[in-house]
């Protein structure tokens, strides 16, 4: 069994216009032309009944912004800054946003943490979907070669920021084009504290123990989905505990011609934030590319930086989950 605590990495199976001529629309819109044009296009798409497209560049900006705060380790100022960024970004987009604050003592240290929960009503009241990712980062770079570097917190571009970036861009789409069913996005804190699994998945465990009455029963967890060499095989707990959801998501990838990024083969059994949810009876799958860098060399190291990630990978994952979600009846 592969574990995100680093004890057993996965062994994978297998030119300007002349004066007087028509000028580009973005120039006519003034200094904020590109942003205004994007908003106009979204408005036109929505009025025409079309779902706005997932914007890979906006998603990647969310990834870089998180990393720019610094390590998102509980009790650090950068952690607080990122939490506030998530809340402030979601508030104008969602029907409701709340913080689920909690604390836990780990090895004698009291950690202050927050899950961030956002909701959209959807066009009908039944059949809700849960989308989640963890937003914290590993406090120690376990897989660095030297002890001094191992004691440093990781940047967490892929392992943390990538899943959050995809969901923040999806939140923008939900605002413009309400989903067919209720949607709850949860950003879990304390997933990667460690060093072993006893002190990990803190936010998802707290959420599961204090499950909101309106928590959807089916969903998707996104973790490590920004790898520029993307491949997301089928995770073991997802196969055994939420096979129907897994099959639907991988079918959505096939419909989009993206199935080469979602190979229908076993990719190892990985302990992650979906497990505490599954233990509460929620059918939640984990989309995770647990093979990061040559021989998994960038995982839990100081090399987990934005240059190892790809806007295209974020879009592939975002498009697939959106295709699945908007096909719900």
Q: Structural class, judged by helices and strands?
A: alpha/beta
Question: How does CATH name the architecture of the largest domain?
Answer: 3-Layer(aba) Sandwich
How many helical elements? 11
CATH superfamily of the largest domain: Zn peptidases
**Residue-averaged pLDDT, rounded?**
90
Describe this protein's structure.
This protein is α/β, with parallel strands linked by helices and 329 residues long. The chain has 11 helices and 8 strands. It folds into 2 domains: 23-52, no CATH class; 54-326, Zn peptidases (Aminopeptidase), CATH 3.40.630.10. The two termini are 35 Å apart.
Topology readout:
Layout lengths: L1 E2 L21 H4 L4 H15 L8 H14 L7 H14 L5 E11 L2 E12 L8 E6 L12 H4 L6 H20 L6 E6 L13 H8 L8 E6 L12 H6 L1 H13 L14 E2 L2 H6 L3 E6 L22 H16 L3
Parallel strand pairs: 1-7, 4-5, 4-6, 6-8
Antiparallel strand pairs: 2-3, 3-5
Helix pairs in contact: 3-6, 3-11, 6-11, 9-11
Keywords:
329 residues, Aminopeptidase, 11 helices, 36% helix, globular
Brief account:
This protein has 329 residues and is of the alpha/beta class. The protein contains eleven helices and eight strands.
